[in-house]
Amino acid sequence: MSKGQRIFSAHLGRAILLFHQKRLFRAIIGTTASISTMGAVNAAYGQEANGAPAKPILALRAVGAQIYQCRETAPGHLRWMLREPVAALLEGDRTVGTHSRGPSWKLEDGSDLEGRAVSESPGRSRTDVPQARLAVTQNNGRGRLAQATSVEREDTKGGMPPESCSSAEDLLPVPYTATYIFYR
User: Fold this and answer.
1) What pLDDT score was predicted for residue 49?
2) pTM
3) Cα(102)–Cα(149) distance, rounded to whole angstroms?
């Protein structure tokens, strides 16, 4: 096992342990976005391609890590580059799915989506991953997300790496939380 893999395993092990400690879990994520706020979210985030207002299907809280890998971006210049997100998707206190590379979202009901970023806006601080709008590029047509056409990532906390790294190929998990809202 390489040094980067050992560091990654240690950090991910700690992130998983923290995830399962309910007191800390509640302190990190605060309250889950409620469906009753979806009208305001919808009004703030626009319309479908045909001009009709986008309709929210589901809001889920993500708790996990953004995984970065140290890469050479120019001769002698190393920088953390996003490799993949790894997060549990929560509805209340219950894990209902996962968010991972792609980006993709998979729910226990069989829903399986992939998307691509369409736009981003800064997080609340420089340590927060950007808020983002994503278009669904693949949808298996099953489960509660069968009709999803877009995804919003908002209320982000954490997830941004330091400016530079020192050893190529090292991995760095940076804990983060976010709310993902799925629209049709």
Assistant:
1) 53
2) 0.74
3) 15
